[in-house]
Write a structure and sequence with these properties.
The protein has 267 residues and is an alpha/beta fold. The protein has helices spanning 16-25, 35-40, 67-76, 78-86, 96-102, 168-176, 249-260; strands spanning 4-9, 29-34, 50-53, 91-94, 119-122, 130-138, 151-158, 162-165, 180-185, 207-211, 217-220. It starts with a strand and ends in a 7-residue tail after the last helix.
Amino acid sequence: MKPTALILRSAGTNCDGETAYAFELAGALAEKVHINQLLRDPQLLGRYQMLAIPGGFSYGDDIAAGRILANQIAHHLSDALRQFIEAGRPVIGICNGFQVLVKTDLLPGPLAGRSGQNCTLTNNECGRFVDRWVRLAGRGRKCVWTAGVEELELPVAHGEGKFVPADESVRRALWEQEQVALVYVTDEGTPANAHFPDNPNGSVDDIAGICDASGLVLGLMPHPERHVDAVQHPAWTRTRPLPSEGAGLRIFRNAVQHVAEGVGAGV
């Protein structure tokens, strides 16, 4: 029996197809479900072992990127999602999905004595939308999704990707509790030090992705679902030998393996 993944859709979501395909390549069954279906029946979430909030522009990013979908989740689905995570079931938010998660209290969760929203993703430091490939390095050992990831290349495509903690205590706590999962680095693997374009948005500490305290919830701005096949990389014709798969697929394989092994996931 294959693990199942729910791909959450709303008006403006545009990466649900690629995200579902990535889960299927990783060995899962993926189903795209509209937010209205969950609002009518929050217990529907219990049928799945993984949840993805994909990229796009949910509700046109009105008010702020991801804010409306985040409010729907916080006010109507928070109990169902907490039960989902407490059962050991992984959650990923990609790009707009990351923006959604940080505007709830699900990611990174309580830190440094602060609950509720304690970080944000705001306008890129360069002042414009950035669409390019970036190099990333894994950090910490807590996150289920990035287990074993050392370095990889993924594309970014966002205008509000600058990660900013609420204050210095939150920033320190993210590192001390190993909740920084991915950082932007140079082509040589050295710290980007906030320099554009290695750090495409000016994120504090070059942070590209964070997880919650359990390691089950990951949010990241780069798009792993857009590099699940080696030929999706712009240099694929010059790469020999050609890898059997894209670097981003490892992230989905990790989550599928986690639930397939039945670690609290009920499969």
